[in-house]
């Protein structure tokens, strides 16, 4: 009887796994056509200078509205896109549309704003990242220093020489690099100077708790101090309340991003916000 029971359980999980795999395959198939079918949209989340309260840029965050599956969050489809080899096309699409959006902000008079784009490790493997990024900037006539590319710690672990070569080329062109989700990855800090990153983005998991937990507070404090001594800009992600923003500002944090000020917005809504806020955003 015991054996049969185990067998039944095994079949149950086997079936659940198979269903999950099938769903992943279907999603991946739909994703392959998402670009051509115009199902991808970019939203932009403002980044705020904690000293002046001014919006200094925005991070591009991709959204997929699938006619079949509804809204699929990027945490679900980006890993699928990476596995299926479609991420490089998606990244190229994101860079192209981010650069266009940034150029539009500039044309409207918000001509100091930067745009940040998330990269994937796969983007360095195909070998065309440098060429298309430079050509997109050139065509949009946007100076390269308005584009920032976000990396994660784990991306910098494999294929170091190949990645470093491409980063150096892009940096020589004027593009800057930041480390996203800082503190959650592999903590070999040597890469901060090795890759000459200009910004670190302190992960939301630390930021969210600084007013509740002295451990997180100490970690964030140490990250801010370290970034300052290395002349690296620090950005705090996921600020949801003014108490946290005030604390971060006291600790010397320079830039904030989070629901306190704004969720990621459509290009249209961001322009409305920019136009309304000739005054500063406070906290
Ligand atoms: P990320 O790059 O760390 O982006 C920040 C995420 O935190 C975004 O989630 C943003 O909406 C969310 N967020 C911002 N402020 C707050 C806050 O105050 N509270 C909370 N709870 N969340 C906040 P989103 O848009 O769902 O993106 C999730 C992740 O998906 C991103 O994390 C990034 O790793 C990836 N991703 C998004 N767009 C792209 C893209 O175009 N390319 C690539 N390769 N990855 C992307
Ligand atoms: Mg990011
Ligand atoms: Mg990211
Ligand atoms: Mg992040």
Chain-wise SSE layout:
Elements: H1 2-32, E1 40-49, E2 55-66, E3 70-72, H2 74-84, H3 87-107, E4 114-118, H4 123-126, H5 129-140, E5 147-152, H6 160-173, E6 176-182, H7 190-194, E7 199-202, H8 204-207, H9 214-229, E8 233-236, H10 242-251, E9 255-256, H11 267-276
Parallel strand pairs: 2-4, 4-5, 5-6, 6-7, 7-8, 8-9
Antiparallel strand pairs: 1-2, 1-9, 2-3
Helix pairs in contact: 1-2, 3-5, 5-6
The structure holds ligand C2E and magnesium ion (MG) (3 copies).
Keywords:
283 residues, alpha/beta, 8-stranded mixed β-barrel, 11 helices, 9 strands, 19% strand, globular, binds ligand C2E, binds magnesium ion, cyclic-guanylate-specific phosphodiesterase
Plain-language structure description:
The protein is α/β, with parallel strands linked by helices and 283 residues long. The chain is 49% helix and 19% strand. It has an 8-stranded mixed barrel, surrounded by 4 helices. Helix 3 runs parallel beside helix 5 and helix 5 packs parallel to helix 6. The longest helix is centred in the first third of the chain and has 31 residues, at 2-32. The N and C termini lie far apart (64 Å). The protein binds ligand C2E and magnesium ion (MG) (3 copies). One magnesium ion is lined by residues 180-181, 201, 237. One magnesium ion binds at residues 118, 150, 152, 180. Residues 24-278 form the EAL domain.
């Amino acid at each position: 009887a015991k054996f049969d029971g185990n067998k039944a359980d095994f079949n149950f999980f086997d079936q659940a796994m198979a269903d999950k795999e099938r769903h992943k395959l279907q999603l991946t198939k739909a994703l392959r056509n998402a670009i051509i079918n115009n199902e991808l949209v970019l939203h932009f989340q403002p980044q705020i200078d904690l000293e002046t309260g001014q919006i200094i840029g925005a991070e591009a965050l991709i959204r997929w509205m699938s006619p079949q599956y509804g809204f699929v969050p990027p945490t679900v489809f980006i890993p699928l896109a990476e596995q299926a080899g479609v991420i490089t096309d998606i990244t190229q699409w994101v860079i192209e549309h981010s650069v266009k959006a940034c150029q539009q902000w500039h044309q409207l008079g918000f001509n100091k704003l930067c745009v940040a784009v998330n990269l994937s490790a796969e983007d360095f493997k195909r070998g065309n990242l440098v060429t298309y990024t430079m050509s997109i900037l050139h065509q949009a006539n946007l100076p390269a220093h308005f584009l920032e590319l976000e990396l994660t710690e784990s991306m910098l672990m494999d294929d170091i020489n190949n990645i470093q070569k491409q980063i150096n080329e892009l940096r020589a062109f004027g593009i800057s690099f930041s480390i996203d989700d800082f503190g959650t990855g592999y903590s070999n800090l040597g890469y901060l100077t090795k890759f000459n990153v200009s910004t670190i983005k302190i992960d939301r998991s630390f930021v969210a708790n600084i007013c509740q937990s002295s451990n997180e507070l100490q970690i964030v404090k140490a990250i801010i101090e370290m970034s300052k001594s290395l002349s690296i800009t620090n950005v705090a992600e996921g600020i949801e309340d003014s108490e946290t923003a005030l604390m971060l500002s006291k600790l010397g944090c320079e830039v904030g991003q989070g629901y306190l000020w704004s969720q990621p917005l459509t290009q249209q809504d961001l322009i409305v916000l920019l136009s309304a806020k000739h005054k500063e955003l406070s906290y």
